[in-house]
């Protein structure tokens, strides 16, 4: 019973807050900007997130394809936890070693146009997985080709940290480094 009058009094004072000290109406303040719409995430097939190894296989499958093939961003995003980060390590021929830490969306904005020019990333060796309960570290060497059967253009390694949320595995962190493939010596 006591709360009702307090609420009514608060509501009665609300219009007064819209008046200036001189009793003139104040202009309404613009509403705060809407929260950004979260990017679309697809549902994954049961096997695509069933293990850290499955995440790696799905990642290679989702980003690989011929020139002109659109990549399914919703499927790629669905592999990564909402707070995942990407680290790109490298060695620039003129500037030396570097490390670039990127949120997932800016990384995808940079990488997808490159992938869509023809990009096939495959494991170059079996991944090494270190797992303890709901955490896993995956180390997977890879080779990149511009066409499915073409020569290796780049080699490198992916280091993924993965976590189990009780229902599925997620990529929580991806670090990688690539280098131009060295052509084999001529006989």
TrEMBL record:
Signal peptide: 1-23
Claim: Signal is one of the keywords in the record: yes
Keywords: Signal
Domain of life: Bacteria
The protein's name in its UniProt record: Nuclear transport factor 2 family protein
